[in-house]
Amino acid sequence: MLRLINLSKEYDDKNVIDNLTLEFPQVGFVAICGPSGCGKTTLLNLIAQLTKPDGGRVAFDIPNPKISMSFQEPRLLATRTAAENVNLVLGDKKATLPQAEELLYELGITDTLLYPDELSGGMKARISIARALALKADLYLFDEPFANLDKENVLLCTEVIKKCTSNALTVAVIHDTSLAERIADKVIFLK
Amino acid sequence: MKALKKLTLALASATFWLLLWFGASMAVGNPLILPSPIATFARLAELSLESEFWKTVGSSLLRVVVGIAIAIPFSALFAWLCSSSKIADALLSPAVTLMKSVPVVSFILIAIFLFDRSIIPSAIAFMMVFPVLYENIREGIISVPRELLEMARVFRLSFPLKLKRIYAPAIAPYFFAAVTASVGLALKAGIAAEVIAYIPTSIGKKLSDAKSYMEPADLLAWTAAILIIGLLLEYLLRITLKRTQRRRTNVKAD
Q1: Buried b vs exposed e over B197-226: b needs ≥16 C-beta within 10 Å?
Q2: Looking at CA atoms only, how far is residue B212 from chain A in angstroms?
Q3: Domain residues for B170?
Q4: Is this complex scored with an ipTM above 0.85?
Q5: Does the distance separating the beta carbons of A73 and B148 come in below 8 Å?
């Protein structure tokens, strides 16, 4: 599904990713762990093609794969409600709003009419996860999805993520190594 | 209570200036040089009873509004172009500087040579509004958080959807502030153009006639009419701006 071939990226003359070659399975949950500043977020941005590599390439088995992503920060539209933020990736149509609400209910957010500035950090993180899951994608990228969540919500979100992405590849940056080992099919450590 | 205090203060200020005007007209003692506020407003009331007055006000207003209405899509288009292309920005920036720095009267006189007289007030209103709108819309486009644009890119949001949900809310406060700031300018410059180009059925022509026929009460009455129109336009725009802000136009990435 996804291969990283001799991938390199540098910022301010510092090699963040240095000649990295990796092969990912077609389907499954892959966790990326490593210390702060080791290039985990940069790696996700390279896979999502938000940034260009300085060397090597990101290769996909299928042409033009659909990628969905939950960023480190929620990146929600302050002018839209929780449900509308999720519905945005479904085409922002009235007809798809119940689908967005359903996903939010699954992630434990019942008040879908609240605006981001009325929500806690944990709720915003779950909306960001819901938005990523709303899109039927070939590849799901999650950057620290559980950073702002309590134990109970980590379990809930893991369950929903696994259910919604069962037919796709999921790559998640997870800071907590023990959590990553518990929930992922494969764990990759970056140095 | 706060609104009442504000209103009282505004009324007190207006009364002060009217009294000052009244005092000055008494001191001059010649209504042919400086008519009193009572004579001026009496003349304005008299004029407002004539259908010709409303036809004149409507025509002048229409010319200015046409200029503003044309400036809006043009400034949006150029702001978009210039925020996405450095070449376009370099090409347009001297033109905008020129529009901002050249005295309006020079533009009016050049326009008299170049265009049909009837379109001059609209063209001048355009010239006044375009640079202000252009710069503000451009600022609004630049203010869109990069993080939201990246999010839109990952989710492959369509251009109309990005425009509606990301760009429009970001640009709206800048746009309304620019329109509010420039509408008065457009009105004043448009009427100045009417005076110089001597446009039939216009406030400018009425001002020019009042000066020529030595009718200072008419001159001040038409000036008061311009002032009232300007204030009304600004008030209407401010209400629109408040309503849009209530609909949460802040487009920060949350």
Answers
A1: bebeebbbbbbbebeeeebbbbbbbbbbbb
A2: 56
A3: 36-246
A4: yes
A5: no
